[in-house]
Amino acid sequence: MEIKNSKIILRDFIEADIDDRIHWETTETEWQMWDAPWENIDKFNPDQYRKERLEWLAKNKNENRVRMGFQICINDGRRKHIGWCNAYYIDDNYKYTKEAGHCTIGIGIPDLTSRRKGYATYSWKLFIKYLTDNGIRDVYTQTWSGNERVIGLIKKLGFEECYREYNFRTVRGQLYDALTFKLNRIKYNDFCELTEINE
């Protein structure tokens, strides 16, 4: 499955993406300084990752299922793969859960040459539309207070802070707050109308 707008394509994971992800996890790793940098990245095992992804690709899947993530490609002749967006659930206390909860989105664009070109904005705009068109009423996102670039993206799209846990994360020796935002649909719709006019 793929969906697209004028800037990007969101598509299902394919076998060629395995090598890209291994590259981003082991070589082009700058993004890890901002995307949950407290996680232990040393545990990544390329061989295990390849095995798990190939097994997942081989499984039969319902093509009509609601996707909880897409790979991001630039919408041009090359269709360059630059990252991913995903969704997960948090509970009423804003903690990750495997049970039913509040839909929460994330994004990663490890490709350094694709930064600051609007691709993250257009990816989330399309992903949010896909989720809401498929029955997701409320959309949340989470980050930490030191990730100023993604906070700018979050606020631009119309998310509003709804929960803050002070001094929750230690990143490079400094304490930061854990932040949760909820999408204000009126602000989001206004943003979408404005960007459509300017496309």
From TrEMBL:
Domain (N-acetyltransferase) ranges: 8-182
Coiled coil: none
PROSITE patterns given in the database record: GNAT (PS51186)
Xref: InterPro entries: Acyl_CoA_acyltransferase, GNAT_dom
Descriptive protein name: RimJ/RimL family protein N-acetyltransferase
Organism: Alkaliphilus hydrothermalis
